[in-house]
Design a protein that fits this description.
- The complex is a heterodimer of chains A (112) and B (113).
- Chain A is mainly beta.
- Chain A contains no helices and eleven strands.
- In chain A, the strands form two sheets. In chain A, strands 2, 4, 5, 6, 9, 10 and 11 form a seven-stranded mixed sheet that branches.
- In chain A, a hairpin with a 5-residue loop joins strand 4 and strand 5.
- Chain B contains no helices and eleven strands.
- In chain B, a hairpin with a 2-residue loop joins strand 6 and strand 7.
- Classes of the chains: A mainly beta (112), B mainly beta (113).
Chain lengths: 112, 113
């Protein structure tokens, strides 16, 4: 299985600020994914990040709020911009194909 | 529009018995179905998957069954162990070229010693 790391593992942020979450994988992958798990909810896909192209966002998520970078085949960042308490969630990156997808440990974000 | 549903939010099973977790889906374009186990404050751990061309896949104590006509899948864990206590999510993807996962709402499994 793949090794995926995320930084930070958790953070507490003030309303109106931004946080950038880093995701590093131990092998080169074409597609990486960013998900969110709000408290008590399931996982929801935010966007798909392909190296060398703009990220593809799911309905309800926009680039201005969740800008994503994908500078190479092993790394991606997700920024949560202008945060509000509703952004308090676990943010997860993942990689993989149709039958197998692996997740990072997650970043637990609390917005006050 | 909940395309993947887990209708049982919780399940309690005696240690050593079989745990059966169920999942229903509505989108006939789904090609792969995956099961994950999740502890609080951790990322989901991949357990097992099944392709839509199969009706059963086994890996150790875990077996997944797929009934395409009923759009239903189930995960069997036997024998159940205390370490299996966690939240289990089923997820589906439309296969290669469209690997994004749609998750169910999760089932909290508690194994009673």
């Amino acid at each position: 299985s793949a090794v995926i790391s995320q930084k930070p593992s958790r953070d507490i942020c003030q309303r109106g600020t931004s946080l950038t979450i880093q995701c590093q994988v131990d092998s080169q992958v074409t597609m990486m994914f960013w998900y969110r798990q709000q408290p008590g909810q399931s996982l929801t896909l935010i966007a798909t990040a392909n190296q060398g192209s703009e990220a593809t966002y799911e309905s309800g998520f926009v680039i201005d709020k969740f800008p994503i970078s994908r500078p190479n085949l092993t790394f991606s960042t997700l920024t949560v911009s202008n945060m509000s308490p509703e952004d308090s969630s676990i943010y997860l990156c993942s990689m993989g194909g149709g039958s197998t997808q692996y997740f990072g440990p997650g970043t637990r974000l609390t917005v006050l | 529009d909940q395309q993947v549903k887990q209708n049982s939010p919780s399940l309690s099973v005696q240690e050593g018995r079989i745990s059966i977790l169920n999942c229903d889906y509505t989108n006939s374009m789904f090609d792969y179905f995956l099961w994950y186990k999740k502890y609080p404050a951790e990322g989901p751990t991949f357990l097992i998957s099944i392709s839509s061309i199969k009706d059963k896949n086994e890996d150790g104590r875990f077996t997944v069954f797929l009934n395409k006509s009923a759009k239903h899948l189930s995960l069997h864990i036997v024998p159940s162990q205390p370490g299996d206590s966690a939240v289990y999510f089923c997820a589906a993807s439309a296969g290669f070229g469209n690997e994004k996962l749609t998750f169910g709402t999760g089932t909290r499994l508690t194994i009673i010693p």
